[in-house]
Amino acid sequence: MSINPIPSLPTPAAATFRTQKQERFDRWWIMVAAVVALVLLLIFLKPDPYKNLFLFVRDGIWRTTYITITSFALVAVFGLIAGLARLTKIKIIRGIATVYVEVIRGIPMMVQIIYWYFAFPAIVQELGRGLNIPSLMEFRPDGIVMAIFGLTFGYSAYMSEVYRAGIQSISKGQMEAARSLGMTYVQAMRYIIIPQAVRVILPPMGNELITLLKDTALVSAVTIPELTRRGREFSSANFNPIETWTMVALLYLVMTLLATRLVAYLEKIARYER
Amino acid sequence: MEPIIQIKGVHKYFGTLEALKGIDLEIQKGEVVVIIGPSGSGKSTMLRCINRLEEFDEGSIIVDGIPLDTAENINAVRTEVGMVFQQFNLFPHISVLENVMLAQQIVRKRDKAEAEKVGMALLNKVGIPEKAKFFPGQLSGGQQQRVAIARALAMNPKIMLFDEPTSALDPEMIQEVLDVMVALAREGMTMVVVSHEMGFARACAHRAILMDAGQIIEQAAPDVLFNHPTHERTKAFLSKVLH
Prior knowledge:
Strand order of the largest sheet of chain B: 6-7-8-3-9-10
Oligomer: heterodimer
Largest sheet of chain A: none
Order of helices and strands of chain B: EEEHEEHEHHHEHEHEEHH
Distance between the termini of chain B: 39 Å
Strand content of chain B: 15-25%
Number of domains of chain A: 1
Strand content of chain A: under 5%
Radius of gyration of chain B: 18 Å
Number of helices of chain A: 10
Shape of chain A: flat
Shape of chain B: globular
CATH architecture of chain A: Orthogonal Bundle
């Protein structure tokens, strides 16, 4: 009977990982440059309709960016709060957080956004009539505010799971060591657990950012003139769906690729800082 | 003189399992106590109750006159009680020196210069000042455990708890950790040590305790307990551990 040869050990993991990372970093910048070049090429070589289209949707690009950045900043904070709430020993808080996450994850994002924009103000108005409070009867929130609110409320649930998994990935001994030195729970989180969890959390957090960026297209359903809605307006006025949606798709691609680069950069910093 | 640690009637349950079945124990200031016993006997659990890393269900523990009841008292006790873990539990994201400095700065509120001075002095004491700027992952197990001892000492604790400090170490690294512990014992530190290092027990301990099934079975001076055990369970355990 022959004995299978022992497979040779891979080269030290850390070293290969790092060089691969470095190479990918460069290659992906070429991709970004290629897509940007394609957009510019279309605009300069065929100004009708591409240049007109670009100028038309430009405010939509800014609005999409604004909604993404604002929502994501809020999601980063509320997701952490919800994530910590899911880890607390206090049963009632943990219960509320768990119900919140399970409910949100079970409802399509599109429905949630529509709910916050159309149903929620109507509920507040009903309540105002019932309780006879004039200010509530007149409740008509700004559309973009409700869109950001809806995205934040929904994405915080997903983000809380990212934080929770990241914090749980740090061994229990770390918290025990910190507490045994007299640190409070908050100090232990701030100085010991979260700095270590960040490295685990960053990659899935980057995914959330990119998914959120793409899901801002959903708020076009509630009349917010962001990139997708502006594209639809242009397309229906000029009857050129191929050109319009090609351009819109490319513009989203530029944004998501840039976001990916940003996340990769942050991951790199977190790794080298140790 | 009042004992520095007073444990009275402590019971602890893990679900339906009774891990501690009424522990009574008093430890004097300056005493070195070694706890031995089979795995699952509750020795680590009892040790972890002393700084309330483990909650207990009945009974009381008073450390240096402070009862372990409110969150504030528990934290007050923790600042006075250093702990060394089997798995070292150094903070891997900061340097060795920062490991020793951090709690001094945020709990003891020492300024950076003072914390660094204390930290370097302690790294000297445990024999690895040259590793100050390294990260814990770059150190051997024995070196990491010595840093862990320095980290606990940086808080100027009155009591040191050791939870199987050499069990995760390669044999050739055990002695360097024990040497640090012996030096500490000679200085008069109050120490409670869960360990099967009989050599350490004989050299330094004032008292050895055998635990089994959540109870203290027998306690005596180490030589007496190891050489002339009276209880059957002590004899049975020692016959497996010695030689």
